[in-house]
User: Fold these one by one.
Assistant:
Number 1:
Amino acid sequence: MKKIILDVDPGHDDAVAIMFAAASNEIDILGITCVAGNSILENTTQNALKICSFIDRTDINIYAGSNKPLKRKLVTASHVHGENGLEHSGDEIIIPNKYKLQEKDAVDFIVDSCMQNKGITLCPTGPLTNIAKAILKEPHIVNNINEIVFMGGAAMTLGNITPAAEFNIYVDPHAANIVFNSQIPLVMMGLDVTHKVLVDDTITNDILSIGNKSSKLFRDLINFYSIFHKEKYNTTSSPLHDPCVIGYILNNKLFSGKKANLIVEENSELTMGKTVVDWLEVSTRTKNCLVVNDVDSDNFFKLLKDKFSLLP
Ligand code: RIB
Ligand code: CA
């Protein structure tokens, strides 16, 4: 069983990632930490509580983390996820009164967990602010963390929030560089691979055929989430970014890439948040990250369906 901490900014694809992980007996979710990103922290925390309530997993502790990046002004993605960060056509999800955020701050939870347990895998699917703050607060956690499998960046593809940058890294490039320079083993699930995990009506209907309430929520979430992508890119499908992190945790053989140097632009406004990946090894910089750029998407979606069939 793999011990993970999910660090999220739900967000529709974060929500699917939470459901995917919670359905998997191979994964022990030690806790879910929330960060501002797709929406403000008040929304991302509420949305995490909603998703865990919906799948009857109020045993999972949820922690509030950073409400803004280390240095930059918060940029959200309400144009994709709606004002509350998780807009959808389904019924409002009720959070049981007893299910509250933990008192402990997310950063302290990450530090304490990583100091008390060796071999934790951190799974951030939002801006890396919480992770960076944990490393700054207690540098010794670096030696205990198994690896960080994160959704973010773009090695050889264009950005999705600026021409140069992917959203998670763009929101907090300074945090990203702290994480990328930490010596912790890194696995980057960037747009190069997440843009190959494309959910369309065929896939949505296949998941829906499971017939449980979680498959219906998946349909409702994707229906809203796909509005932006279909209009913006004139496509019939949408990239399922964050669940790629969980797919990798469950079966990394579905994915491929190469180790390369990864560093982030944190000064130029033109290329702010650009993940500069030395894929062609033209520098002598340390290969600090496994940069994933390919996936067996058919078997990814089979795995996703298998796990969703285990949910309520
Ligand atoms: O660029 C896509 C990423 O930004 C995803 O994690 C999405 O949820 C948003 O956080
Ligand atoms: Ca996210």
Note: The chain has twelve helices and twelve strands.
Number 2:
Amino acid sequence: MPAQQHFDILIIGTGSAGLMSALQLSEDLSVALIAKDELLEGSSYYAQGGVSAVLDTQDNFQSHINDTLSTGSNLGDEKAIRFMIEQAPAAIQSLEKLGVLFTQEQGQYHLTTEGGHSNRRVAHVADKTGKSIQTNLLQSVKAKKKIHLFENFIAIDLLMRGKQCCGAYILNKANNEVESFIAHKTVIATGGASKVYLYTSNPDTSTGDGIAMAYRAHCNIVNMEFTQFHPTCLYHPHAKSFLISETLRGEGAKLILPNGDAFMHKYDNRLEIAPRDIVARAIDSEMKENGFDCVYLDISFKDKDWIKLHFPTIDKKCTSFGIDITKQAIPVVPAAHYTCGGVQTNLDGQTNVGNLYAIGEVAHAGIHGANRMASNSLLECIVFAKACANHINQQTFKRSHSNFDNWDASRASPSQEKVMVTHLWDEVRRIMWNFVGIVRSNKRLHAAQMRLSQIQNEVNEYYHLYLISSDLIELRNLITTAQIIVKSAISRTESRGLHYNEDYPDTSATIQNTTIQL
Ligand code: FAD
Ligand code: SIN
């Protein structure tokens, strides 16, 4: 394998954003599509609820736009939101053309609902929407001759010439060699950063790599204080925060305390389908005040066959842990779920760095504001993947590439201290969970900032002394992203949406984004 590889386009990430953008590129462009794990591994595959779109004659675009803005505490950008929502029905159609069979009832889409939506507008494939989207997208990508797939290749850093991005340094995990992937345009589609928290609904891939790489390349990083905590993840020692979809609550499931009492009426008149920030804070408050390990979600009053038809994945998973959801309430706790902030982009996915795009959860195009509305994320992935690819297709390329110095590991030695990496990984995630969680305070944020900065120094030293590894790359990105989150949280002196600070409980009349730069 050569140390340098040349492509027209490099796409980092094979989630729904990465795969869809690759499929939309002109057939004559050579494309490298890389994934740091197996090709299907990533948040997209595990998506349950669905994809939001105005598909019902009772619904309309303005209502979807208003719900998105209001769920995001009015911090979202109306122009960007409108751009996405008006393309949602076409996004559903393009997924159908690729083979996704959305659940139908009596010849119509079965549209479900979730927190913040004032109409039924969530198209879904039972409770395995992500699996269906991903397998169909990947199948189509595999049929394209000029798309080259690289599995278990992890991007380390972007290759820069001045202020232009020219590709990335990438570690081949199979042989631990670093290769330079040189490209005219690079698209970051690496997903979110919820793994900076100890408990998360996300798979292991969500370590904020794209955000950290973009930050080091001088991209603007926006609104990272807004980590979304999903209210209902399965509480079981072996469940690894398996998600219990919000669509259960959309279909009437009740949140109850261990004694069976409902409690959402104390917090919001929309009860269980209030936006996620409100429901997660309500659960957190009940757990902390009463010393409970979890609360419960009950859908057992619904017909057994209906439950099994609509929620087969959740039913199977819970059954494997001895929980019969048709007969008993499910133990649930909140866990980090979605990164609302990210790499700043325009509506074509372009960042402020030349030849560099960002799409999907890694990006901040102005959609989610201070809290993402349920099922708007897969939609964002599809719409912005298409916009980004269309923009790239309109560019002209000179077919020559400059060369870059190969990765130099001559001064690094094999590490005898791998335990440091695992220890620091764990420490960062505990600090974030305990000090930068659902409810924050100035004291806890500053304590987190101090310790994270010490850890950053320890990681920098380790990074320069020892040979690179996948765990070390992720730890370096995790600590960078954690620090950006804390810095953003400290600079927001109000409570808004997902960012609740006890020292500033009010929402300011001034609406502004938080932008962090290197
Ligand atoms: P991902 O799908 O996370 O893919 C990231 C890709 O980047 C992976 O291929 C990974 O290997 C690769 N990668 C990362 N770092 C590197 C690196 N350094 N080098 C190389 N490759 C790298 N949203 C909805 O709208 N509806 C839902 O129903 C829904 N349900 C969800 C359920 C769960 C359990 C979870 C976790 C999320 C859910 N979401 C849902 C959110 C949504 O799934 C994600 O926001 C979205 O899928 C992100 O897609 P993506 O393409 O940006 O990233
Ligand atoms: C869910 O099904 O609850 C997740 C939906 C989402 O994150 O948008």
Note: The two ends are 34 Å apart (CA to CA).
Number 3:
Amino acid sequence: MQTVTDAAALRAAIRAWRSQGQAVGFVPTMGNLHDGHYSLLRIARSRAERVVASVFVNPTQFGPNEDYARYPRTLAQDQAGLAAHGCDLLFAPDVATIYPSGPERTVTVHVPGVTAVLEGAHRPGHFDGVATVVTKLLNLVQPDVAVFGQKDWQQLLVVKALVRDLALPVQIVPGPTMREPDGLAMSSRNQYLGAEERARAPAIHATLAWMRAALRAGHPREVVEAAALKRLEHAGFTPDYAVIRRAEDLAEPAAGESAGLIALIAARLGATRLIDNLPFDGL
Ligand code: PAF
């Protein structure tokens, strides 16, 4: 596996593959890779002859009080993992390569609508940072397919919207959430958890499953959401939200609406903020 850090080397490698008629799959990441990322790589591999991954901790998607500085940077380990999982090319740019005018002065991509709620409401500016860097990475790599994890469900909707509205010639493919045996969704942020917090963390997935069961049992959505917040607090979390929404646009479902729903939770455990979701698949 080759590692490149600048746009010219990236484009030269991809041009060579394209001249041989090979399709390119892309998995953008912020590094500190785990089996969740490698499952996305396998999906890309199954759809394209060549696979590119990026590792870039994107400053513009972190708020001023968030974990940009301490976000784990493990490039050597990531390179070894990507090579072992069939990645052909790693793009690992620095901040100046992605933001030549500086992160504060960059052209910004803003996706309206779906970014106004949930993560967008709790992390102002976060999705502008995500949409901007994803647009830039897609323009640099110009893949045929790009794979995004469903664990960041709202991010997936944001990426689909920008690809549609800006007519980017790429197919966005969702990757199912990978979980630890106790149900905790795999995430680079899990390593921030102390032993006691790690033992409590699966309560998020358990609460999502409970929300689905409670709605299926006929309890009103608002009652289920309020009870889910209580369950999380009881388990030691400080929840930001625990809601049931339409999966396709995160709008509030009408009373009695049961198809195409999803439960989403964001909650803090000590200093660590975790998110997870559970699509109901038609209820
Ligand atoms: O999901 C992530 O790791 C990041 O938000 C992404 C898509 C790589 C953009 O920085």
Note: The chain is about 40% helix and 20% strand.
Number 4:
Amino acid sequence: MKQGIKKAIFPAAGLGTRFLPATKASPKEMLPIVDKPMIQYGVEEALACNLTEILIITGRHKRTIEDHFDYSYELEASLKKSGKKKMIEEINRLNRINIAYIRQGYALGLGHAISRAKPFVRDEPFAVILSDDIIPPEETLLKDMVKLYKELQCPILALEQVPMSEIHQYGVVDGVLEKNGVYRVRDLVEKPDAADAPSDLAILGRYILTPDIFNILEGSKPGRGGEIQLTDAIKKLLKTRQVYGYLFKGKRYDAGSKFGYLKATVDFALKNAEIAEPFKQYLFEVTRKLRQ
Ligand code: UTP
């Protein structure tokens, strides 16, 4: 029988240096986009794809992530007193799901973080969600990948065409287009210079992986930047099995960078029923002044 996917892994143990000093003692994943922390958007995306077994890889200074997905009795009592029933429902909505946590110990890279998920994943395929890549809820990227996995039963990397001037920030794929948006991956390069990049197909923060990645990760040595890179492990995986890329053409925010974070904040605020109108007026005012 073809295997489906139930598990989603959230590596969230990085140091978040691009947001220092904000991330000195609090997790990047807890930075809010309007009124929800980044990681909540990712968890909601997983649940929308019926990935209900969730593991978050955390580290020091990341305890607020666990608190966020737990009950807060004091807050509940206070909201009850002031009759804010709807808000109680909202803050408790995600507490009913089971989330497991494993610590990474040392932030030795994304590949190392994922290797910590082995006891949770065991012998099943799983999704990886990098929660600082924010994908709006109306997009169906992860759903499409989960569906595609059912058909291909192979690892799948989400791809996006990025301008060559930005390619050095990404893992990049050399692939052959097999059918509508689906590439057979031939090779991968982590953060190449534009001149060495095999294409403009960048890997973004959604993966479907298979458990054979763990043996490779366990034997991995630090690569670029002294980190154990997931890209290097997937490159090794290519020797033993087919890996696919799935081209995403929708909206994505790189909220791990300040500019991407601000873009996400503005766009999500403009869709937020409570503040969209006054915020729009404010933006008109700001842009009018900027044009003067
Ligand atoms: P990033 O490359 O964005 O690194 O990691 P970072 O540490 O979070 O942020 P900067 O670059 O220093 O600003 C991509 C994802 O991988 C996780 C991060 O938490 C993020 O979700 N990660 C990275 C780990 O879990 N462990 C690591 O050792 C490195």
Note: The domain at 7-256 is CATH 3.90.550.10 (Spore Coat Polysaccharide Biosynthesis Protein SpsA; Chain A).
